[in-house]
Design goal:
Chain lengths: 347, 274
């Protein structure tokens, strides 16, 4: 089911939603796209297309720092129901990142109750990309730069407004709040959308042709476990973990304990496998003592472990890690070099 | 939804000094703690931190759970624990992991090898095996410590020497004048003649990584099947339940998929003993 709304009618819809629950939209702040709460002030300049925001979508669901337990008084913050919220303008790669995180946090025997609760309450309205960056490589991960399934609603910007596609009952209910603002999308409107999609898709595909590989990522990693390429890249890597902190699929965390008032609390905070202490055990033994071990570890985790455990790569091709890297390390090139068995000299 | 991050309270009932660096803590959890041998718990020292330990007591006693703890030099949690007294409170989450596949062991010879503080989980395993000793073809224990002073569970070990249900041999790396058993690392007391039907026998090893690494060729030479050789892996753990990522090696989470693995599952990981 696809509907059409003019830009001003879509504002009307956003306003209706925002009366009931927080709505986050994507806008430029300085030079970059970020999520911002929808208000009468942020109504102008909402970006429906372009590309993903800077901050990963997971930041809405898996907070950088969260108190997860208070003791000795058995207490559970998860009991506190969260309120519903709406995110408008997540991209295809963002949506994939949630599927990836779901496997870890809510599909196992033991679930993270905080994540599950936020997931239940977060309504994701995705949108088509129109201007991929040079760093975008979703197509190498068998994604298209427009969502095909898994969303509540998807938005496609066309010249005169937006096309809204319904992907779930929840999405349908949202639209029913403003039926009078919608019309059935016309065949020519849908054709316009499909044309835009084609253009964007071929752009992402073209710019990634040079990174195409002869083998799946997983096989390459298994085969090139001892490659000297790892060492060459670890020599460049500063171990700043920028690439991991910005990654929408990294889920590692650390728990720590502290005293508060008369009791204690356990806090969950994002952690990164490029930090030296990450794999250290009592007595000082370290499973990954060198930078080379650690840089390789990220690739094993994302492309071997995740595929073998969950049947998917823990990478969306969003390119955030490439943009973030001060050492100019591009995962796509790392794979190319692994394949060629040498390091490129584009340092 | 249940919150798996919240520890239950446990009172320290007793502290047994095993040796200068190892103490056994007798805990009474606020609710009975059901576990099977080889499963581990996450123990919280309030306000200090949390660490994984494998109960060393019998799984048939769920209201009196013991953990035997080596104080790591400079170790945050283990040092704090060693400073605790009867009456103090700790937190417990779990149990986590699978525990040993006792059902598969039944009817066969079981070859238990413990080294250092790795004897702690092996004691829990021995209790479970001896609880229904007639179910196993033969129970064999090999236990090594650095020196006689650093041995644990001295009285229990002595009682096993005369227990017809179990074949034990003890060793220390460095002996003193009181020592009457074997001298040498634990692999020196692992002999082919210990086992009759090695194709069907199971081995379980727990100890420092270096010991496990040296055990592998010895066990293989004795004729054990790779799928029958179990090892406990020690990796950094934060959550204990497959969420935090810390304990991963290769395509396994040591917490959720282990912490004990048969050799065939782990032999291809270059960093397995690191
Ligand atoms: C499944 C399992 C079962 C176990 N069972 C037992 C048992 O029965 N008995 C026993 O004695 N031991 C057992 N251990 C080992 C025990 O958990 C460790 O000895 C204990 O965690 C050490 O904690 P600590 O805080 O005292 O040591 P520390 O050395 O203070 O801390 C260890 C932890 O902190 C991290 N760390 C240390 N230094 C740094 C640094 N500079 N920067 C960043 N991180 C750092 C390490 O990576 C590690 O996570 C077991 C381990 C596992 C995995
Ligand atoms: S590894 Fe890089 S490209 Fe892949 S999901 Fe993470 S940030 Fe995006
Ligand atoms: S990686 Fe693909 S889906 Fe993500 S922002 Fe770029 S073009 Fe869009
Ligand atoms: S951002 Fe670049 S330099 Fe920093 S840790 Fe990642 S790969 Fe290394
Ligand atoms: S300890 Fe957290 S995933 Fe294993």
């Amino acid at each position: 089911m696809a509907f059409f709304a003019s830009f001003s009618d879509f504002w009307g819809l956003l306003e209706k939603w925002a009366q009931e629950k927080p709505v986050y939209v994507v806008r430029y702040i300085s030079d970059n796209l970020h999520y911002q709460k929808f208000t009468s002030e942020t109504r102008d300049g909402i970006v429906y297309d372009e590309i993903r925001a800077v901050e990963p979508l997971k930041s809405f669901f898996f907070k950088i720092k969260q108190r997860v337990a208070e003791y000795p008084v058995s207490y559970s913050e998860s009991g506190k129901a969260e309120t519903e919220f709406i995110i408008v303008g997540a991209k295809a790669c963002d949506l994939r990142s949630m599927e990836i995180l779901d496997e870890t946090f809510m599909r196992g025997e033991i679930k993270d109750p905080f994540y599950v609760e936020r997931r239940k309450k977060g309504i994701i309205i995705t949108s088509d990309c129109s201007s991929p960056k040079e760093t975008c490589f979703c197509t190498l991960l068998s994604l298209k730069p427009y969502p095909e399934k898994g969303f509540d609603l998807n938005l496609s910007k066309i010249s005169e407004g937006v096309i809204l596609e319904v992907g779930s009952e929840r999405g349908e209910r949202l639209l029913s709040q403003g039926k009078e603002l919608l019309s059935q999308a016309s065949p020519s409107q849908l054709e316009g959308r499909n044309k835009n999609r084609e253009v964007t898709l071929s752009k992402v595909k073209e710019q990634n042709e040079k990174f195409a590989l002869s083998k799946p990522y997983r096989e390459l990693i298994e085969e090139k476990f001892d490659s000297s390429v790892w060492g060459k890249y670890s020599g460049r890597c500063l171990e700043c973990a920028a690439c991991l902190s910005i990654c929408p699929t990294c889920h590692c965390f650390l728990l720590y304990d502290q005293k508060v008032g008369e009791g204690f609390e356990k806090v969950r905070v994002w952690d990164f496998c490029y930090y030296r202490g990450y794999a250290r055990v009592g007595g000082g033994t370290n499973a990954r003592p060198t930078g080379k071990d650690r840089i390789k570890n990220k690739y094993i985790k994302k492309f071997e472990f995740y595929m073998s455990k969950f049947g998917m790569y823990a990478c969306t091709g969003c390119g955030r890690c490439i943009e973030a890297c001060l050492a100019n390390i591009d995962m796509r090139q790392v794979f190319k070099d692994l394949e060629a068995g040498q390091s490129s000299n584009n340092m | 939804m249940e919150n798996p991050y919240v520890p239950i309270e446990a009172v320290i009932k007793d502290v047994i000094v095993e040796n200068p660096i190892i103490k056994t803590f007798v805990l009474k959890p606020e609710e009975p703690l059901k576990f099977s041998p080889g499963q581990f718990i996450m123990l919280t020292v309030p306000g200090v931190g949390e660490s994984p330990f494998t109960p060393s007591s019998s799984c048939f006693e769920t209201e009196r759970v013991e953990v035997t703890v080596l104080r790591q030099s400079g170790g945050k949690v283990t040092s704090a624990l060693h400073g605790m007294k009867p009456g103090d409170m700790v937190g417990v989450r779990g149990p986590f992991g699978h525990g040993y596949p006792l059902e598969r062991f039944k009817g066969n010879e079981v070859y238990v090898v413990g080294g250092g503080v790795g004897m702690a989980p092996m004691r829990a395993l021995m209790f479970a095996l001896l609880h229904e000793a007639d179910q196993y073809k033969h129970i064999i224990l090999r236990y090594g410590a650095r020196n006689p002073e650093l041995r644990m569970y001295k009285e229990l070990c002595k009682s096993w020497e005369t227990d017809p249900r179990v074949d034990v041999v003890y060793t220390v790396d460095i002996a003193d004048e009181t020592w009457t058993h074997n001298v040498g690392v634990v692999t020196t007391i692992m002999k082919p003649e210990d086992i009759q039907d090695v194709k069907n026998a199971f081995s379980i090893g727990c100890g420092p990584p270096i010991m496990l690494r040296f055990m592998v060729p010895v066990l293989l030479k004795m004729g054990f099947a790779e799928e029958h050789m179990f090892f406990s892996l020690e990796k950094n753990m934060s959550c204990g339940m497959g969420l935090c990522g810390h304990c991963r090696i290769g395509n396994l989470y040591v917490c959720k998929d282990g912490a004990d693995f048969s050799y065939d599952k782990i032999k291809d990981f270059p960093d397995v003993w690191a």
